[in-house]
Amino acid sequence: MDKFSLPQEYRKYYRSLEPMLAKPKTKRYSTVIFFFLTIALFGWYAIRPTIQTILYLQKEIVDKKAVNIHMDEKINALIEAQAILENIQPRREVITKAVPKNPLAVDIARQLQNLANTTQASLSAIQIGSVPILTATTSAALTSYVVKHVPIPINISVDGPYFVLASFMNGLLAMQRIVTIDSIFFSPNKSGVPQPGITAIQLQLKLNAFYQNY
After folding, report:
1. Domain membership of residue 68 as a residue range
2. pTM of the prediction?
3. Backbone φ, ψ for residue 202 (5° rounding)
4. How many domains does the chain have?
5. For residues 121 and 160, is the Cβ–Cβ distance under 8 A?
6. pLDDT per residue over 137-184, tens digit each?
7. Which has the closest alpha carbon to 189: 122, 126, 127, 128?
């Protein structure tokens, strides 16, 4: 660029520097300075991608360490959950039998009959409400966490002395299949053969057993 093509306000600065730049020693120093400035500028642009890559990798390492810590925590939690699940596995089977996934009406009738035989009570009548034989499980139900407990109405009549019926009631409350008692009705049993010193009683119960429905 010609010095005469510079704007008017810069010409005086150029004129003041012109004698100094014209000296050989000043020219040498200027050349060296401009050389190092050029090397520094090109060097910065050359190493800038490397510096950016190093910073990015450092950030990735920090993020990966945080992810590894979270993964270790989740793995430890899963190990603890698995240990708890193994410990409660027998209890799960008890719960499944207490409230099964199907009505199993015949099974509850058999349990009541066995209880009567064990306590030496006379099961004179048993009536179970209408229930499906099997409950259908759809794919949508498999992913549902809402479980409904559907009641099965049961009416039974049991005959025997007081201590026998008391034993039957205790066994009823301790049955593996859970039942609830809606009503209890006692009445003298006049149909049985009277025994000396023993009063026969008829016990009428309205019960509910349950099964799971999704």
Report:
1. 1-98
2. 0.53
3. -105, 125
4. 2
5. yes
6. 555 444 555 678 888 999 999 999 989 999 999 999 888 888 999 999
7. 122
| pLDDT tens digits, 170-183 | 999 888 888 999 99
Mean local confidence (pLDDT), 24-37: 59
Examine the domain organization and report whether 113 and 91 are in the same domain: no
Residue finishing a domain among 98, 127, 147: 98
Q: Same domain, yes or no, for 120 and 80? A: no
pLDDT exceeds cutoff 50 at 1: no
Separation between Cα atoms, residue 129 and residue 208, nearest integer Å: 10
In angstroms, the CA 102 to CA 80 distance is 31
Could you tell me the two tokens for 89? 């596995």
Residues 131 and 38 in one domain: no
Which tokens is 185 given? 């009705």
